[in-house]
Design brief:
Layout lengths: L7 E2 L1 H8 L3 H8 L9 E2 L4 E4 H11 L13
Helix pairs in contact: 1-2
Length: about 70
Amino acid sequence: MAAGPGDLMGPYEIAQRLGVSRSRFQQIVNRPTFPRPYRELRGMKVWLAEDVEAWIKKYRQPQPPADEDTPG
């Protein structure tokens, strides 16, 4: 029996993971650097979570913890 593709992420999960709105998510996934969807289903596309996480690691700037951006 073949192993499955691994964890999948849809638009909602990716937008949540990136901390962006749905419209901003659409802009991000249209970038040439963003991974191609694993599959296109009838109502949406899904991505391999490992591909999305690799893209985040390479292209997204780390965000400072919330307590570091307030004056001390």
